[in-house]
Structure prediction request, 379 residues.
Amino acid sequence: MSEVLAKHGAGPAAQLILELLPEPVILVRGGEGETPEIAYGNQAAREVFRIELAGAPLGAALRRPEVLEAIEGALATSAPAEVAFETIGVQPRFWRAFARPLGLDGDGARQLVVVLRDETDARRTERMRADFLANASHELRTPLASLAGFVETLRTHAKDDPGARDKFLGIMAQQATRMARLVDDLLSLSRIELNEHIAPSGKVDLARTVQDVSDAMRPLTEERGVSIATNVEPGATSVVGDRDQLVQVIQNLVDNAVKYTPRGGVVRILLQPAPSLEAARAPSRPGVGLSLLSPDSAEASAYVVLRVTDEGPGIARQHLPRLSERFYRVEGQRSGGTGLGLAIVKHVVNRHRGGFVVESAEGEGSTFSVYLPALPPPA
Ligand SMILES: Nc1ncnc2c1ncn2[C@@H]1O[C@H](COP(=O)(O)OP(=O)(O)OP(=O)(O)O)[C@@H](O)[C@H]1O
Ligand SMILES: [Mg+2]
Prediction:
């Protein structure tokens, strides 16, 4: 097809550049009253739209009537056009076609160049953003509606009933706390995302941090009648990280474990050294694990693995892949949480270039593991 480009005076370098562009580019020509045909399609265009040879009718490659109409219109009027369309297949894709008139060719036929831009990822991101906003608003609206309801009751029916008043004020305080937590978690998630591309460089003593978090959680564990047993294996102490963020990781995992462990039960925290990425990923129990995050590349030569194991009800397989999604809660479990805890864990660990694994089965408790790049030993 390159003769066509040569006719336009495109030298070998220009032809090569056009050929290698990642976006599909198609040169279309059409004489008066003729159906537009493809004069040239670069490699991406040939692959994506299965263009086999020059001279094929444009409709064979771009089958959508609205696209053909726009391009025929641009040919006829010599005015630029732009049209968005969707291709269906195993995976639907969203495209935007930009048609730009190019003047006449040697035979007096009109020509134009069509550049296609794949907007699938942008659409997906947009959809996720919209879903997130809808979810967040819904989560905030529920406690807010309940607060408004109780205010109304306190003003009217419960006005002169001290018993009811105390009870309602108690619920209102709970709802307000819940809203405040939700907003805090949302803010902290967005703060983590803001610098997620910059790996932390501090040194964090993980064993010490685990101890501090467990100490701070004592009121909760006492209230729940659950104990925490920590075991630090030799060599599993320091990692490269951001201490405040790692505190959030430990807090979220231990908080869940304590929440789901029945009275009298034990939450086990284990810190283990792992000499390689493979070792860090290795399951702690057979056949019930799922990786929720793994590092793009093994930048670190050694890791420290933090495992939090509970004696709770466990989680059915089908829920595992969605646990770290924002607002995802296993149905039937009224945890009273915001559903943001594990999303925060995942983003912090991602920033640390580490990994996140869940191992759980119904009736068998759960183990949540996080592995983080170990601090290299001093030279
Ligand atoms: N240790 C666990 N045992 C059983 N189910 C769990 C455990 N940890 C998490 N889950 C399930 O995963 C869901 C998401 O957990 P996540 O920590 O993200 O949210 P949450 O605990 O509901 O809210 P938050 O952590 O914001 O208070 C929980 O609602 C629960 O259904
Ligand atoms: Mg939680």
